[in-house]
Design a protein that fits this description.
This protein is mainly alpha-helical. It is built from 19 helices and four strands. The strands form two sheets. The chain has a two-stranded antiparallel sheet. It has a two-stranded antiparallel sheet with strand order 2-3.
Amino acid sequence: MLFLLDILLSINLWIAYKYFKNLASPPILMGAGMLAASLMATSYYTEWRMDKMLPISVVILGGGTLFFTFCCMILCRPNKPVKHKRINEEIKFPIQKIRIFILLSIAIGFLGILLKIYYLKQAFGSLSFSELIIARRMDEWNGTNDFNLPSFVRQFGSYTTVVSNFTIWLLALMFSYQTKGLQQIKKILLIHISVIFIDGMLSGSKAPILNMFMQFGIFFLFDYYALKGNYQISRKVYVRLLLILFILAFSFRGLSLLIGRDVENRTNSDLLAEYCGAEIKNFDIFMHASNISYSQRWGEHTFYSFYKDVDPNFSIQPGEFQYVGNNSLGNVYTQYRPFYEDWGMLGIFVMNFILALISMFFYKKSEDVIKSPFILNVNLLIYTSMAMSIFMAFFSSKFTESIMRLGWLRSVIYLLIMVWFLKKYVLRYGKS
């Protein structure tokens, strides 16, 4: 049955690419992630005993993803890419104003890091950088929650996260167009990226770091399409994108060690398989269970993060950690487990339609960037903030965990304020 899932997801990705062309489109992002996880599970066919996979698991994983693609196609009627005038002109950026803004952001970000380390040491003692990250993560995992950053320190982190969108956008423009003006501030942009990277490490999660790569990829693709005037990608760019993906894959264990994870006895391939592939097996184990506990409150598994925002005391039983022999599979089950637990088969299709509706709305708004790549577009920033959640559908319901919550709405408001400020006081440029 797993081979059938591979075929179904391959067909889905082919349909998505033929229709949308844009590698940054929602159905290609979700389809690529699901196919990668399925192929990884196939490579562990014997170790994970994938021969026991249920047909219903294939229907939900493959059919649900294909349904998402069809919904996106319905919501985006033109099935041919619109060709735009190739961008030949260069914008004269207000380099001095940008330099001052980025330097100020570096100072704020660095101060935020120092404050976080200070309060971490106050809570856990004089430990090393990696040990502090481990201590904070263990505090969260154990449920003790003894450590709580002061609100004003968290605002430093929020500022760094929001402004990172602008810095990554500038870097993508610099790489795409070799803009002379931006080359002058290349070093401080890279320094700011380093600050963002370290701030992300302090969360104890790989998500903020990986999200930086996803954001850069989305920005770069939109800039590239604007430069070419169509959705065609050269073979050289494909090779470079694949090379970056391979580097990220092979550095997965190193990244885990960097943020303080205890993975010294794990190989890179096994660790990567647990994070991208084991979810397929876990979901099938979930479907095998005869004692599936459906939700007591409407949508409690799907909208857990929203309920938690509203009621900090709200909690549900987390997913069980799964093992096949000596193989650790983690405790995440793709985005389809919470949908199924809350509403059964109906939830699989209704939620995929809702996800398609929201993601396609911002994706279509973002396409204006292809006409004017040098203009900071808030819709593109919003779309890049949800792109990783769309791609991570193979992992868990990241979209409802990260996007359908009050915290994300606050981040959108912050983005709107930042774009307004930058356009009014910083990015007042003209064409050269």
